[in-house]
Input
Amino acid sequence: MISRHKNLLSYSFDCLRRYRMRTVVILITFLVATTILSAVLFTKDGLEREAEFSIESAPDLTMQYIKAGRFAPINVSYIDQIKAVEGVDEVFKRTWGYAGIGLNTYLIIGLDPDGLGYVVGPMSSIENGRFLVPEDDGTGNVVVGKLIANALDVKVGDDIILLSESVDTNRFHVVGVFSDQSSIYTADMMVMSLSDANAFFKMPEGTVTDLCTYVKADQIPNDVAAKMSWMPNIRILDHDLLLRGYMAAYGARGGIFTTVWTMLLVAVILIAFSQAIVVGHQSKFEVGLLKTFGFSTLDIIEVRLVESLIAGFLACSLGMLIGYIYAAYFNAPGLANLLLGWYFLPSEFRLPVYASAQSVFSIYTVIVIPLVITSTVPAWLNAITDPELAMRRAAA
Output
């Protein structure tokens, strides 16, 4: 029994070599489809994983002041009201904004010296130097992301000069460089003390951009947030809301590409089916001869099934490898900006790419199964035909 299947497997390889044109057409078309899909899915998986990493550094609740439907500085007097809410552990001030350096725009975050012990996740991962300490308040010391360090060619111990919105010159001293644990969250980030950020952005006295609220270990952030719903002009952002926002953005953009890819896959399947029909007509005499020699209908279907599995697995594997290299090592030109939704990406930025088991399984499923169906159906139609009739039709 085993030797029979070995012989059928050997015959399947012979058929792949014999019908070279069909094999090449199927490999190329499915290779293109797989490459496009894998590049999108692997990039989307990487972005979603980055979003999960990024949320680790966010406070339990972020309090923002809303005026006329727009984000505005919040007065620090809200801290006493927030601390009075049951379940709140600590509240820290934070000021953040954007600064342009050349053609690029970078994120500047000013942290409350009293809240540095609550910094976790990617923001606490330092590759070179050190993170900020309370004594850095007002000194101009900063920690920068790897994208900034590479773009400006700076390292620990160097100085950076920034122009503020009021065109004032500000000098900052680099004391640390973030690791690439999260290539998106910390890549374009510059972290400094709260007083330095307030001075750089010229924040009005007694205001910051938002308040970072941490709840007690036995409390649920959403429940604590519900107790603060009475506060006027306050918008509360929690972990789940931020994560859902990230996932919705990346998922929607990835869905656009998946839709386009679906149309491409339909065209590829039609091409594969057409090639199978052509080869089916060419192999009618062969099928009739095989049945005369004792091949059963199942044997013939098995041969075509093995052919399809080999071609599909090879095309999928090569396509995923090329797609991964295209996204991870070439930064997915033409794809990165559309997936991220940013108008400009610095050349130093590296896309986060991750091949999840779910995506790999999905790619194999949507590629191999249609190929198997389009190949085995014509083979079955030929196999159930009377051998003598099949050979006469083939010779006609």
About this structure: The first strand starts at residue 61 and ends at 67. The two ends are 36 Å apart (CA to CA). The chain has two domains: 2-52+246-395, 88-215. The mean pLDDT is 80.
